[in-house]
Design brief:
With about 160 residues, this protein is of the alpha+beta class. The chain is about 30% helix and about 30% strand. It has 4 helices and 5 strands; from the N terminus they run βαααββαββ. A 5-stranded antiparallel β-sheet has the order 2-3-1-4-5. α2 runs antiparallel to α4. It is elongated and about 55 Å long.
Length: about 160
């Protein structure tokens, strides 16, 4: 954490408030976030084979993640609504961990970053995987939701440690 860092959504009196970005310049901004859904090997095999009764799990989760990113400002009270230029989700089978790894990339040109949109995208995609496969595996775990990378803005770039 930077030495001069302070909570940006807390004003001088300690009240939660939306950050004023009116005086900030618009520039290219992007963020990548990741998540993992861990499940029984049999559940992973059912998803890989397309044998989940609710349908194509990865396609539905991808669309849900995109929708989640677009609605972030409605879900997170102090987020600014942003015109998103790109939302991409990649879902990968991780047989070694008996999991599905999710990665979202979100881009905009604006006055504030898209970290929350990328994080929301992976969280909603993970929840959708759980919803679609819960009939066969209620013990699935959603884990490792985190920011992987952030680019642009006055606070500079951020890259998560591996």
């Amino acid at each position: 954490m930077r030495a001069e860092a302070k909570l940006s959504h807390i004003d001088e009196s300690g009240t939660a408030s939306m950050v004023d970005v009116g005086g900030k310049p618009s520039n290219a901004r992007s963020a990548r976030a990741g998540a993992r859904v861990i499940m029984q090997p049999e559940t992973l095999a059912l998803i890989q084979q397309g044998n989940i009764k609710k349908g194509d799990v990865l396609s539905v989760a991808r669309i849900a993640g995109i929708m989640g990113a677009k609605r972030t400002a409605e879900l997170i009270p102090l987020c600014h609504p942003l015109p998103l230029e790109r939302i991409a989700l990649e879902l990968t089978f991780n047989e070694a961990q008996s999991a599905i790894d999710i990665e979202a990339t979100v881009k905009t040109s604006g006055k504030t970053g898209v970290e929350m949109e990328a994080l929301t995208a992976v969280a909603v995609a993970a929840l959708t995987i759980y919803d679609m496969a819960k009939a066969v595996d209620r013990a699935m775990r959603i884990s490792d939701i985190r920011l992987l990378e952030k680019r642009g803005g006055t606070s500079g770039d951020y890259f998560a440690e591996a």
